[in-house]
Specification:
Elements (H helix, E strand, L loop, with lengths): L25 H17 L4 E2 L11 H4 L2 E10 L5 E11 L7 H6 L5 E7 L1 H8 L9 H21 L4 E5 L3 H4 L12 H12 L9 E5 L10 H10 L4 E5 L5 H8 L6 E7 L9 H12 L7 E5 L14 H19 L4
Helix pairs in contact: 4-5, 4-7, 5-7, 10-11
Length: about 325
C-alpha cells in the first residue's frame, strides 16, 4: 500500500485534557480542541484528532450516542465505568456529528477519528439475561452502527479511522485465557463486519488497535488468523518494550497491510533512547517494507478523561520524540 501511504506520525486519538475542562460546556470544549489542533500541527503530526476532549472516555463516541445502554455505578480495575446493554442498540444519527468538517476548518492536516470496536463493546457490556440474546447479536448490531459511521466520516473527509479493541491481543497469546463473553471467532466476525466498506477513496485507511501491550508470547497461527479475518488496512501495534512477542506480531502481518508501530511508552514520562528505538525499527525493516509503516505512542494518553497517563508536558515530549523517530526513518518524506 506504499503508493498512497502518508500518515507516518500518528497518535491513538486521546490527549491530556486541559485542567478543569467540562465536557458539558461546548464552548470550552471547542476552545480546547482548537488548542489541541495547534499542538498537533506544531508537532508536525500527519493526522489530527479532537483529542477525545468531548468524551468521558474512548468508548464515548458510541455509548453517548446510541440507545440501548445503561451506565452502572460500577468501575472496573482499568478505571472505566461499566455500562450494560439493556436492548439491541440503535443509533440516533451520527456518532461524531460533523467531525471531519469541524477539524478541516482548523487545519489542512488529515482528520483522524477513533472509535471503540463493536466486538470490544459487545464483550464488555453484554450481560446474560438482559437485552440481546447473546454477545454476538449485540456485536453484530454495533458493527452495523460503526460501519455506517465510518462511511459518514469518510464522506466528511476523514482519511484515517481507528477502531480500538484492547482485548484482541489477549486472544493471540500462547495459551490465551478464556472466559470472555465473546469468543475469538465471534470477535473477529464482528470487527470484520465493521471495517468492510464497498468503496474507499484513495488514501483512506481503516485501522485496528488490538491491544495496548503485547502478550508474553504470541501464537503465530492465531495472530495470522486475526489479520486475515479482519480486513483492516492498518494495524496499530505495541512496539515500545523491545520484546520478541512485539516483533512476532509484526512478523505475522500480511505483506499487503500497513503497520503503525507504537514505539514510545505512553505510560511513563522517561524518554526512550533513540538508538534503541531505531534498532527495533531496523529489525522490522529486515522483513517488512517500512514504506508501509508509521510510528506513534503505544496507546492513548488519556483514554479516560479523568485519568491521564502523563502530564501535558510529558505528553508533548513523547510526541516530539515520535516525530523525531519518524524523521530518522523517512527524512522529510511524509
Amino acid at each position: 500500500m506504499a503508493d498512497t501511504f502518508n500518515y507516518r506520525i500518528d497518535h491513538h486519538g486521546s490527549l491530556v485534557r486541559p485542567a478543569g475542562l467540562a465536557t458539558d460546556d461546548p464552548e470550552s470544549v471547542d476552545a480546547a480542541v482548537r488548542e489541541a489542533v495547534v499542538l498537533q500541527r506544531g508537532l508536525r503530526s500527519t493526522v489530527v484528532t479532537d483529542g477525545d476532549f468531548p468524551r468521558e472516555d474512548f468508548r464515548g463516541a458510541v455509548l453517548d450516542a446510541v440507545d440501548g445502554f445503561r451506565r452502572t455505578g460500577e468501575t472496573g480495575p482499568d478505571g472505566l465505568v461499566r455500562w450494560v446493554a439493556e436492548s439491541v442498540p440503535k443509533a440516533n444519527g451520527a456518532l461524531l456529528p460533523d467531525y471531519g468538517t469541524r477539524l478541516a476548518a482548523l487545519t489542512v492536516i488529515a482528520p483522524k477519528a477513533t472509535l471503540p470496536s463493536p466486538a470490544y463493546l459487545a464483550a464488555t457490556t453484554f450481560q446474560a439475561g438482559l437485552g440481546p440474546a447473546s454477545a454476538r447479536e449485540l456485536g453484530e448490531a454495533l458493527a452495523e452502527i460503526v460501519r455506517a459511521e465510518i462511511a459518514l466520516l469518510v464522506a466528511q473527509g476523514v482519511r484515517l479511522i481507528q477502531l480500538d479493541n484492547p482485548l484482541l491481543l489477549d486472544h493471540v497469546a500462547v495459551d490465551p485465557a478464556g472466559g470472555s463473553a465473546l469468543s475469538f471467532a465471534d470477535a473477529l466476525a464482528v470487527d470484520a463486519a465493521a471495517v468492510r466498506l464497498d468503496e474507499r477513496p484513495e488514501g483512506v485507511r481503516i485501522g485496528v488497535a488490538p491491544g495496548w501491550a503485547a502478550p508474553a508470547a504470541v501464537d503465530r497461527a492465531r495472530a495470522e488468523r486475526l489479520y486475515t479475518e479482519v480486513p483492516a488496512d492498518r494495524w496499530v501495534l505495541p512496539f515500545d518494550q523491545g520484546t520478541r512477542a512485539e516483533l512476532d506480531l509484526v512478523r505475522a502481518l500480511p505483506e499487503d497491510r500497513d503497520v503503525c508501530l507504537g514505539v514510545v511508552d505512553a505510560t511513563v514520562p522517561e524518554l526512550e533512547d533513540i538508538d534503541t528505538v531505531m534498532s527495533r525499527v531496523d529489525a522490522v525493516g529486515e522483513f517488512k517494507d517500512l514504506e508501509d509503516a508509521a510510528v506513534s505512542p503505544s496507546r492513548g494518553f488519556a483514554d479516560i478523561a479523568s485519568r491521564p497517563l502523563l502530564s501535558a508536558e510529558d505528553q508533548r515530549r513523547k510526541l516530539v520524540l515520535v516525530e523525531t523517530i519518524a524523521r530518522y526513518c523517512w527524512g522529510n518524506e511524509f
